[in-house]
Amino acid sequence: MPKQTVVQSTEQLAQGAVIEYSTNIVTPSYSAIAGVATVPRVGSEGSFVEITSIDETTKRYIAGIKTPPEWELVFNRIGDDTDQDAIIAAAVAGDTIKIQITYQTGDVATIDLVLNGYYADEASQGDTIQMFGIKGQQSGDAVFTKVA
């Protein structure tokens, strides 16, 4: 599916999102990752800190620390795909890579992803595609923009 080039004015399917990576996080040059099954959650979830004093009967809170999600990027393994090989090698080394996701809506999310391992999913009989996956942790806030 081609990468989205305009911002949409109606609801869009999630199917068709394009995920790209760069091993250079300073001056990224992105390449598409083939065979991705799903795009993991991007963003952060905040906690809350209670600041209620003893003379109050209703609890009060302030915003606490935000926690970005862990990542598990699962893809259909293509044995001679150099981009998949590069991501697996980065995961083995524990490197940080840059990820850019272009959604069908025209929204673009960019994150730093700290990798920490990969796996080959189970091989079974029948019409099952061989899946591989990398594990990681989003580091810092996601940057959301729109396609140009």
What does the secondary structure layout of this molecule look like, with pairings?
Elements: E1 18-22, E2 31-32, E3 45-50, E4 61-67, E5 70-76, H1 82-93, E6 96-102, E7 107-120, E8 131-146
Antiparallel strand pairs: 1-2, 1-6, 3-4, 5-8, 6-7, 7-8
Question: Could you characterize what this model shows?
Answer:
It contains 1 helix and 8 strands. It has 148 residues and is mainly β. The chain has a 6-stranded antiparallel sheet with strand order 2-1-6-7-8-5. The longest helix is centred in the middle third of the chain and has 12 residues. It starts with 17 loop residues before the first strand and ends with a strand. The mean pLDDT is 96.
Beta percentage is 35-45%
- Annotation, overall tally of beta strands: 8
Runs in which pLDDT lies below 50 for 5 or more consecutive residues are none
Structural class: mainly beta
Distinctive features:
148 residues, mainly beta, 6-stranded antiparallel beta sheet, two-stranded antiparallel sheet, 8 strands, 8% helix
Describe this structure in a few short sentences.
With 148 residues, the chain is mainly β. It is 8% helix and 43% strand.
